[in-house]
Each structure stands twice: as C-alpha cells, then as structure tokens.
Amino acid sequence: MTMFFAQARSAFMLSLLSLIFLGGCASTAKNPRDPLEPINRAVYQLNDGLDKVVLKPVATVYKTVLPQFVRTGVTNFYNNLYDVLTALHNLLQGKVGDAVSDVGRIAINSTVGLAGFIDVATEVGLEKHKEDFGQTLGRWGIGSGPYLQIPLFGPSSFRDGFGLWVDVQLDPVRWIWRNHIATRNSLWGLYIVNLRANLLDSTKILEEAALDPYEFQRDAYLQRRRNLVYDGNPPAEKDDEDLPELKTKPSGELERPDLAPRSEHPEPQAAVLAEAQPDTPIATLVSKPLAPAPSTAVSSPESP
User: Fold this and answer.
1) Please, what sign has the CA dihedral across residues 268, 198, 98, 123?
2) Whole-model pTM?
3) pLDDT above 80 (res 272)
4) What b-and-e string marks burial along 54-83, b requiring 16 or more CB atoms within 10 Å of the CB?
C-alpha cells in the first residue's frame, strides 16, 4: 500500500512535468488562458470517467448510509486539521489577524469541540477561512499561469499545481500519522469520500446547467481562484472585459430554470459550480485537495 502511494505521488509529478513539456505542442487552443486545451480536455475526460466509475458511486453509498450529523462531524474534523495550514498561509500573506483567528479556531474546536468534530468556533463568531499555497503565491504577485487539468487531481493551473505539491508536503495528516501508514491512508481515503459526498448535489447542477462542462468548469475555476486570492475583491485588469462568459443552457432547456445565468459573469454561480467536481477526484488518497470542504457546525447542519 505504501508503495502504491509513493508511485501515485511520482505519477502526479511526472504528469505535471509532461503537461508542461507538451505545452508547446498544443497550438489549437481557443482560449489564451488555456493553451493546453486539447491535452486538458483529454485529462478531464479521464478524471470524469474515474469519478463516475469509482468515486461517485462510493460517495453515494457513504451519503446514503451515514446520517447528516455524522458526515458533518467528519467534515468538521478535517476542517479543524486543515485550519493549521490556513493559519500558516494567512501569516505568510501578512493577514496576521486572520491567522490569530485561525489559531483560536483550532484551540477551541480541538478542545471544546471534541477534536474538531463540533465546530464551536463558528458558533462563537470566529470566521472560517480557506487558504492554500497557491493563494499565497498569488498574494505575492505570482500569476496563475496557464490553466491545467492534472491527472486524478482535476482543475488547477501552473501556479496552483506547484502550490498543491507544497501543501501535500505540509499536510497535517501526513505528519501527525507519519508512523502509522494504515491510519494515515485511511484518513486520506475518508477525506476524499466525504468531500465527494458533500459535492454530490453540486455535481448535479454542473451536469444540468453547463453547455460544455469542461469549459464551464475551467472558466468558473479561474474566476473563483482569482476571487479567492484577493479575498473577494480582485483589482481591475485590462482584460476584464474579455473574461469569458460562463456558458449555460437556455433556461427553457433546464429542468431547474433558476440555474440560468442572471448576469454576464455570475460570480455566485461560479463559486458554487467551480466546486461541482472535486479538486481531487481520486488522488486525495495521495494528498489533500486544494481546499477543504465547507465548514458546518453539528448543531445546525447545512448542505454544502
């Protein structure tokens, strides 16, 4: 099992390097933000196929068998673990107040919240943040670079792909259970399944609304990541008017007409639908995805 995870990590890095090397060969892309589009589409089909055959069925059974309060507790447990990385990244980004708040969340949820299974910190007013090294690099002025579909890991970019690798090395699960390989791998596996179960409803929205699922996911991902880097207030850019419109089916063709876009660039929809497929369909068995699942307190469970 350990050899499998080592090989999977190696495969991820080799795949990333191969995509970068092949970038010069992808000359038929329509979007300048996605020069690797022919390759990315092929990888998307692979990831989507694996998700439909393996991960989605397992997540569906998981959601059916376990009651909401149990799944919410599992989500809170992982959120508490990954608040450690969020606190670190907030500090690296110079957001000291947020970092202090994150440390407070960890202290409260790890004790009063019973190892994080109950999100007491949110109930007392400490806001939940989500930060990763890709966002940190963005705050340092490093552009996202070309869009990238990483085998098994899903939508990313050159910057965020490197950020993901760094976060893999810093993963709390990796370090806390470094001497207990079976426990560590089981926790990673549970994290994937729980995250995928949280996103089952969002996947239905993507499948229903998107005219081209690949293109919609790409454009929504890029908009959402830029929004996250600047905490919801990105500066104006010269090419803002050229931002691609999120293409959805006409409302008359939708089973749910409320999914039809209501503005040229529907940011709220982008934020939801960018997560409609997990950032890591299978490979969270190797590491954690770019961002943890949304936090929800056990006392008032909500659907992600």
Assistant:
1) positive
2) 0.75
3) no
4) ebbeebeebbeeeeeeebbbbbbbbbbbbb
